[in-house]
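Practice set, problem 2.
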Amino acid sequence: MNLKTKTLFLSLFLSTSVLAIDLTLNISNIEKLEGTLKISLTDKAEGFPGNTDNAIREEIVAVDKNKMQVTFFNLEQGEYAVSLFHDVNDDGELNLRRLGVGPIRFGKPKLPDEPIGFSNNPRIRSRPKYEDCKFKMSGNRTIEIQLQTL
């Protein structure tokens, strides 16, 4: 390789390395040491939370501690949001339970029957919005997420 080729290769390598950043999640309040954590990282409001078709990354991690750490490597700078749930029975779905005695013709409202969590730890009164959970990534970052049981 001549000097120009080496210089071009080195500059391309360095420019892509600088853009790759990591996001570490410290997940706490895990009550049962069974099942898996289903984690979705997204950069769009559309389908958040719950629609994993729009996730840019997903992780499924076996639960073996009350506090878990998961890292998404090689992300680009930008805006993201995280949603996750503790799939206690490991059936691959967020199980829901009926609430109250709503009219049968409209169906009864449903709440998650398994612990859930989101970036920025919003207080959950209804389905969290992307705007409430989003955060910016301009360098390596660690965020804390506490699972909540409704």
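Problem 2, part (b): a different protein.
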Amino acid sequence: MDRVNWLTIQERAKRGHHDAQYKLGIMYCNGDGVPQDYGEGLKWIRMAAERKVVDAMCMLGLMYSNGTGIARDYGEGLKWLRMAADHEHAIAQNILGYMHADGLGVTQDYVEAVRWYRLAADQGHVSAQYSLGVMYEFGRGVTQDYVEAVRRYRIAAEQEHEVAQNNLGGMYAAGLGVTQDDVEAVRWFRRAAEQGYGDAQFNMGVMHYLGRGVPQDTVLAHVWFKLAAITGKESAQDNVNDLETKMTPEQITESKELASKMSSTTTKGK
């Protein structure tokens, strides 16, 4: 952000414009046009939150919960997140779902987690749709329902949520909640893999190695396992090493060339 705009926001914030106070706080936290300063950012965000700026309430709750720029305090974080959630803030509702699912600052409570996820999902929050899919797949806080899990995963997957895409592929591969279909499984694994999601890249390696949904191809299996290994998927590197004992030098060279071409667009370190 250029200095003129920063000065305008700073001046408006000092005059008591609540939205400008929140924007200024975010700028300090991100180091956008000013030296990064979480303490200064927290000051302005708190000022806006106390004046009922809902985005600021959510951000303040998140900063307390994560210990960003201040000592972690789940109690204070939950207080501000609930205030934002009560104002129909979908991000805050989703975070509250996650905190209840993992027992962060509260007693673990899957039923309460589902309640918050559902409120966020009803507003179109993509990650909340994915999380509801997980809850339905494993029967956490709800009766296990693979069909509903697939429905929720699909909603998120169609909005390019890579983990939902991978999970949806897994449901097709296993025939859970849908008719078993390896071709459809590969389609969803590929969409997630092309976003750099390591688990999906690993799954693409498996499908190519076994010839499920695609022609059997050891070279492409090696490529996908190698890409997954780059993201930190430890078992993928084991598969790379194992396949190389069965491949010709020419196949290994071909795989490395393909992996090099694909890595710039399909790996994000996930």
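Answer key, part (b): The mean pLDDT is 94. The longest helix spans residues 249-266.
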